């Protein structure tokens, strides 16, 4: 196994909502190895972005530890985070909001180079040209403004900026979900090519199971601020152990495309302000038993580098007729 690049152990993070405290992250552990692509998946509000921002020390966790390239950065002062800031970059969902509209593309891509004291002006200009070529944009894009580009092209600009400092890890938060479907595949291919060429690691935040399957080696499934399942992506998708993972997979458009009836998880996740007692998933779980209402299952290791937080792992995945489970409703459309 390659070296661990970034690792969070037992992170806890609290926020306030309307003055009331709640747990955004509850005992979350995530590791990204050098060159690895890890997917963080879950419904909206499950804590994926909070986990990524805590890993990057944008949010300061209330408890737990963080290591980057072997260094304990849990309590490092801001100047102690320089290596992390340089070697880990982010790509956001919205290529409109994440690029300053008044800056030329050259200035946008050069900004991290300038901030980290990267060489002379002509060297920076040459680096920007290389990066534009790498992401498939013409050299004359450098002098133009973001508004002169389409959504897919803007995401290419954002990717070029993220690659400027040759990072070890790119955290990509729903990098294609704001783009037209026809453009999504192009950006996914670009991200794949870049990884093959540079060996960069990815932490991909998504609720798109097909994207996860296509792009990642390992998957971490979150529900209401906790990790409920993790393991090699191929194994998790082929035989999910947590009923929540099984339901997410069954509800994905890919499952529909494969000719299976589309099913969706009934109801919304509970409010993080008042999480259910016991297993937080039990009110929506088709295989829940009385025990699940009382006790919260720990994330228990399984064979093959997998882990699952469920007292009845694999039951829902093995159920032949997921659509008939009482608490998982058929999609009305
Ligand atoms: N800065 C903040 N202050 C207070 N609450 C926050 C803050 N950021 C996120 N939250 C809340 O924390 C919970 C987790 O949010 P988070 O954005 O991490 O989820 P997510 O899984 O990334 O969702 P999405 O897919 O919608 O981005 C949500 O209930 C959200 O409203």
TrEMBL record:
Main location group: membrane
User: What Gene3D superfamilies does this protein map onto?
Assistant: P-loop containing nucleotide triphosphate hydrolases (3.40.50.300)
Tell me if Nucleotide-binding is a UniProt keyword of this record: yes
Q: Per its UniProt record, what PROSITE patterns does this chain match?
A: ABC_TRANSPORTER_1, ABC_TRANSPORTER_2
Membrane topology, from the record = Peripheral membrane protein
Q: Where in the cell is it found?
A: Cell inner membrane
InterPro entries xref list: AAA+_ATPase, ABC_transp_ATP-bind, ABC_transporter-like_ATP-bd, ABC_transporter-like_CS, Oligopep_ABC_C, P-loop_NTPase
GO CC list: plasma membrane
Q: Name one Pfam family in it.
A: ABC_tran
Q: What GO molecular function annotation could you give as one example from this UniProt entry?
A: ATP binding
Q: Which GO terms are recorded in the biological process aspect for this UniProt protein?
A: peptide transport; transmembrane transport
Keyword Magnesium: yes or no? no
Q: Which keywords has UniProt assigned to this entry? A: ATP-binding, Nucleotide-binding, Transport
The ABC transporter domain sits at 8-249
Protein family (similarity comment): Belongs to the ABC transporter superfamily.
Q: Which PANTHER family match?
A: D,D-DIPEPTIDE TRANSPORT ATP-BINDING PROTEIN DDPF-RELATED, TRANSPORT ATP-BINDING PROTEIN
Q: What is this protein called?
A: ABC transporter ATP-binding protein
| Organism (species) | Zavarzinia compransoris
From which lineage does this chain's organism come? Bacteria, Pseudomonadati, Pseudomonadota, Alphaproteobacteria, Rhodospirillales
């Amino acid at each position: 196994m390659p070296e661990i690049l970034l690792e969070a152990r037992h992170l806890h993070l609290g926020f306030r909502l309307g003055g009331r405290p709640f747990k955004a992250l509850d005992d979350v552990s995530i590791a990204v190895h050098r060159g690895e692509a890890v997917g963080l998946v879950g419904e909206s509000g499950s804590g994926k972005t909070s986990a990524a921002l805590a890993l990057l020390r944008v949010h300061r966790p209330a408890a737990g530890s963080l290591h980057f390239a072997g260094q304990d950065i849990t309590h490092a002062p801001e100047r102690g985070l320089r290596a992390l800031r340089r070697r880990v970059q982010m790509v956001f969902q919205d290529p409109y909001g994440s690029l300053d509209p008044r800056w030329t593309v050259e200035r946008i891509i050069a900004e991290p180079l300038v901030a980290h004291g990267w060489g002379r002006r002509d060297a920076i200009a040459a680096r920007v040209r290389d990066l534009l070529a790498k992401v498939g944009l013409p050299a004359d894009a450098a002098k133009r403004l973001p508004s002169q580009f389409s959504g897919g092209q803007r995401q290419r600009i954002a990717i070029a900026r993220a690659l400027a400092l040759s990072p070890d890890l790119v955290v990509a938060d729903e990098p294609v979900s704001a783009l037209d479907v026809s453009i999504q595949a192009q950006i996914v291919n670009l991200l794949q090519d870049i990884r093959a060429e540079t060996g960069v690691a990815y932490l991909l935040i998504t609720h798109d199971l097909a994207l996860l399957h296509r792009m990642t080696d390992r998957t971490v499934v979150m529900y209401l601020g906790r990790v409920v399942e993790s393991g090699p992506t191929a194994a998790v998708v082929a035989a999910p152990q947590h009923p929540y993972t099984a339901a997410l997979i069954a509800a994905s458009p890919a499952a529909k495309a494969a000719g299976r009836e589309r099913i969706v998880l009934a109801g919304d996740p509970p409010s993080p302000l008042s999480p259910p007692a016991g297993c937080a998933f039990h009110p929506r779980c088709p295989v829940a038993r009385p025990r699940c209402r009382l006790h919260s299952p720990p994330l228990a290791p399984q064979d093959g580098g997998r882990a699952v937080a469920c007292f009845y792992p694999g039951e829902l995945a093995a159920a032949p007729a997921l659509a008939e489970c009482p608490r998982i409703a058929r999609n009305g459309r």
